[in-house]
Amino acid sequence: MNGMDDTGFISILREHGLQVTYQRLAIYQALYHSKEHPSAEEIHQQVGRRFSMISLGTVYKTLERFSEAGLIDKINPVAEVARYDANLMPHHHFVCVKCQAIYDLEGVSDDESPMRLDGYEDFKILKRQVILRGYCPKCRSRETES
Predict the structure, then answer these.
(1) Fewer C-beta within 10 Å: the chain N or C terminus?
(2) CB-based contacts of 112: which residues, under 8 Å, 6+ apart?
């Protein structure tokens, strides 16, 4: 995972004027240690084991603040709830259309040179990300079996 460790994350929170709390650290840790690109509900379930009083609303607000500050990425697959990623290194995603699993596609060839959009010269691109859709290996094998 290419996110930040706790010490680095605490420093970044302070730089963005965000208060450091155990709940915020727990939310980030749940995301940092997950390879599944969890939803806010999944993070809430995991963090709720340590902090039973944390509300789902707190998790949503915290994830939004982290996303707005550029500390995490928010992935919005079409027709699916938002999912989150602590890996801020440039990479693409693969979304399984059957089970909705999201996979990091690291090492996939990507030309990071600035894009030129004919007719859209007034736009400023800050980031680009490709989301590929199809069947993951598990769902693909189930499709061929049936």
Answers:
(1) C
(2) 90
Residue 66 CA to residue 13 CA, distance in Å, equals: 9
Buried-exposed string 17-37: b where 16+ CB fall within 10 A, e elsewhere: ebeeeebbbbbbbbbbebeeb
86 CB neighbour count, 10 Å cutoff: 21
Helix (H) or strand (E) holding 74: strand 73-75
Residue ranges of domains in the chain, CATH in brackets: 6-75 (1.10.10.10), 90-145 (3.30.1490.190)
Q: What residues contact 66, with CB distance under 8 A and at least 6 apart?
A: 27, 28, 72, 84
